[in-house]
Each structure stands twice: as C-alpha cells, then as structure tokens.
User: What shape does this take?
Amino acid sequence: MNTKMKSFGFVLALTAFAMAQEAAPVAEAAAPAPETAAVQEAAPAEAAPAVPAQEPAAATEPAAETAPEAPQAVAQEPAPAQDASTGSATETAPVETAAPAPQPEPQPAPVADEGDMPAPKAVRGVDAESQPVYGAQTTAPVETTVRETRVYRLKAEPIPMKFSFGVQGFAGMNTLFDNNWDFEESYDGIAWKAGLFAVVPLNEYTMGFKIGALFDHSEASASYSYGSDYSKEAHVKFKMDRVTIPLLFMLKSMYSNFSFDFGMQVSVPVQDTFKYSYEKADGTPVNGNADMIDLDYRNSMDFALLLGLSIKANNYLSFDIRYECGISNAYDGVPGWRINELTSNTFLFGISFYVL
Assistant: This one.
C-alpha cells in the first residue's frame, strides 16, 4: 500500500510540475512588457482626460498642511505647475479620478536578434529534439548507416589464381584391404610423401590444375590367427616405396583462398617388401622376407582417385588435406597368401611452400 501511495504521489507531483511549466508562458504573456510599463509611467498627466478639479488651497498655507493623503491606485499625483509671470512653482491639489485611466494598448515587443533568441521550451508530449530551432540552418542529413559502412569495409578484393610452384609434404595413415568382402583382414600403418608441385591456372580466378611428383613411402602390418582351431598366429608386414604423380583439378571462389581438389594419381613402385612369420603344423617357425618386385608379384602401376581441400594462408604457405582411394590391386599371382586383391586407402595432412 505504501508503495502504491508513493507512486500515486509521484505521478501527481509530475502532473503539477507539467502544469506549472504550461502556466509559466501564460503568466509571462499576461505581464506587460517592460518598455510598455515604462511608457505608462512616463506619460504626462495631460494624456488623461480632463476632470473637474477642486479649488486650490490658499498659497499662504504650508505645503505639508495642504498636501492630501497618498492617493489610491486610481489617482495619480500631477506634476507641479509653474507660474507664467513669476516662473516659480506652485502646488496644486491632486486630481481625483472617478475611474482608472485607460491603459494604453500593449505594444509588440521588439524582435530580438537571432543570436539573442532563446531556445524554445519543450512542449509536453513532444520530443525536444524534434522541435525546430529558430535561426538554425537546416540541411538534408547524409543517410549512411553503420551496416553499409561495414559491408563496404569488409568487401574483399578478388584473389587471382596465378602460376606457381614449390615443395610439399604429407603424413598420415595407410590401410591395405582385400576387395573380396569375405576376407575381413586388413593391414594398417603409416604413410608419408614429399616432393614438388606446380599450379597452372585455367582462368584468372577460379579454376586451375595442380600437378606434382612425390616420393611415397607407406607401411602396413597385421596379425591374425589361423589353423583348424585358430591357435596359431601369423604376422605380416608390407613396406612400399613408390613415385606418385598426382593430377588434380582445382576449384576455388573468386574472393577466397580455399580450394577444392579432385583428380587421380598414378604410382610406380620402386621397392616392395613382404615380411612374414608363422608356425608350421609341427610348430616349426618360419620367417620370410620377399621382394615382390623381383618375384614379379607386384603390378607395375597403381591407380587411385584423389579428393582434397587446400587453404592458402598467404602467398608462400598453404595447408592441405588429401584422401587417396585405390582402384587397382597391388599384387597378382602370389601363391599361398590371400593378398592378390589388396588395394590401399590413405588419409593425409600436408603443408605446401610456394617458391613462386
């Protein structure tokens, strides 16, 4: 309840203050202008209409005895008259008026200079900023929003695709798996490659080719059980060295350094070693190290599809992601081992340095 009464009292106080602000201009308008009041006081007695006056008192009486009491607001004290013959001032009785002298019509106040003009007062219900300022020059505002300015500043310049070349390196994971779905074994390991590359643009901004020549090293190994009761275990490891030639088609935005690469890769094996160890039925261990190229078990070329992403940090450095999906078998005609239909998948992260 106290809170409601205080709120109500506060609203009443604001209302009274607003009404007083409205009444102030009215009171100022009702008051006569200072110059008009001065004119009224300085007006001579002759301006008032003549009325019959009483007989003047004897000249021999002292001035204090003949002077009447102070006149009321309706009477004015006339100025002392001078004798035309002697030039001396003589006192006359005050003039009594039956009605107040008519007030002269108020004269309009002189227009002040624009520099002295006060600011207009605020009107209730109208924003002070929306009221016109007298004497101020108005010009059409320049409509420029912050959002338009930001868009103008953030608008990027087109990034051209130019001929360049450099060195690059990749590292990641390699997997060898059998294309036959009934063979569940796979071999996993590491892979890395390094070499040269070049970018050849097809147009000014968005399309180009990326070609290279890299040395590729990969390893893959696995262990699996075999035998009638699967009590025996075999260990297998593949080690390959190849020269790969990727050919990628590049697509990028005109205003971005981010590009999407896709294409294919041809690999030529230069070394391929197959290591194995297992136990015979009588428990005799067997260890072997076969050169698959010399034994003519290795195919002469490998083919793979490539997908990649690349983002250029500056004119000299870029970061790459690449996935290689093998579409050809690595081995053929290997007796005793189910590796004739192995193919490889590789996932790589890379970095490229641009010389030009």
Residues 2-30 form the longest helix (29 residues). DSSP finds four helices and eleven strands in the chain. The first strand starts at residue 81 and ends at 82. Residues 164-354 form a domain with the Porin fold (CATH 2.40.160.20).
